[in-house]
Amino acid sequence: MLNGHLDTVSLASYDGDGLAPQRRDGKVFGRGAYDMKSGVAAIMVAANVAKTHELRGDVVLALVADEEHGSAGTAEVLRHYSADAAVVVEPSGLDLVLAHLGFAWFEVVIEGIAAHGSRPDLGIDAITKAGKFLVELERHASNLTARPSPHPLLSAGSLHASVIDGGEELSSYPARCTIGLERRTTVGEDTSTVEAELRSILEAIARDDPDFRYTLRAGLHRSPFAADPDHPIATTISRSFERVVGRPITRRGERFWTDCALLADAGVPAVLFGVDGAGAHAATEWVTIDSLRDTTRVLTDTLVEYCN
Fold it and tell me: Which of 164, 163, 145, 165 is nearest to 155 (CA)?
C-alpha cells in the first residue's frame, strides 16, 4: 500500500494565493506542495510505471482525506483493506523514518464561583486558580523534555497548553476557566499515562487549596509509531534508494504524527519516506523538484522489487 493524504491546512495562513502554484529556483511553491500533494503525485506516477512490469503482488493506492485532523480517511481504508506492507509518502527529506511520536489531547476545566466583582467573599476566581495549574504544567513540561528517550530514534515526549478560555466580563468573578492541552507521547506512553500525570498534578494542587476544583476530560489520542528496521519494506526502500540516488539512505525518527501509526496498529508494517522541501503549515510552502523525481523513482523501484 502507498498512502498519502489529499487534504491540506488552511489557505488563510498562506502568504499569497496558495492555489496558484509557482515554479522557480528548482522548486514548486503553493499550499500543499510539500505536505503533501507532491507525495500523492509521486504515488500515482510510481504506480503507473510499476504496473508496466510483471508484478506478482497487488499495489493499493490509498489517497485519503482528513489526515490533518482525525485521519478518518486511513481509518476507513483499514476497515476494508489490508496489505503486507505500506509506505506513507509524507515529506521526510528523502530520509527513511522508522519511528515517530504520538499525541493525546486533554481539556482541563477549573471551576470557580461567579459573583459580582465587589464581592470577593462570595466569588472564587477560576482564572487565577487555573494559573496554579499552568505553573505546574510548565514545570512538568520541562521535566518531560529532560527525560531520556526509550527509543533510539525518538526524543522524549512534550507538553504544552494550546487553548485557554474563561470569564464573562471585567466586573465579575469567572466561574470557569478551560484549558486545552496537547501531550506528545513517545514509545511506551499512551493516553492513560498522560491522564495519570495530569491527575497527579491537579490532585496535588487540590490538596493544598480546598477551593481548587477541576474536571479532566480526555480527547483525541493517537499512538506513537515504531517500525521494525529489518522488515523487508524498510530494507527494500534502502536498497532502492541507494540504486537511484547513489548513497545510503538516512534512517531516523520524527516528532510529528502520521498515518503510519494507524497502519501499524492495524497490523500493516509501515515506514515513512517522501520528498524534501519546507513550509508545512507555514506561510510559504515548497518542494524541490529533484527530490520529487527521486522519490518517484525510489517508490517505483521499491514496488517492482517488493512485489516480485
Answer: 145
Q: What are the grid coordinates assigned to 88, written together?
A: 506513507
Q: What is the pTM of this model?
A: 0.91
Chain center to CA of 240:
27
Residue 282 CB neighbours (<10 A): 15
Q: For residue 84, what are the contacts with CB-CB under 8 A and spacing of at least 6? A: 57, 268, 269
Right CATH number for 2-100+224-306 from 3.30.428.10, 3.40.630.10, 3.40.1190.20, 3.40.120.10?
3.40.630.10
What pairs with residue 177 in β-bridges? 110, 166
Say if CB 47 and CB 58 are below 8 A apart. no
CATH 3.40.630.10 range(s) for the chain read: 2-100+224-306
| Cβ contact 229:151 at 8 Å | no
Task: Give the HSE-up count for residue 18: Cα atoms under 13 Å, Cβ half-sphere.
Answer: 21
Which strands, in side-by-side order, build the sheet including 158-166? Answer: 158-166, 176-185, 102-111, 213-222
- What number of residues does the chain have? 308
Sequence letter at residue 103: F
The CATH code that applies to domain 102-222 is 3.30.70.360
User: Tell me: the pLDDT tens digits for 26-52?
Assistant: 999 999 999 999 999 999 999 999 999
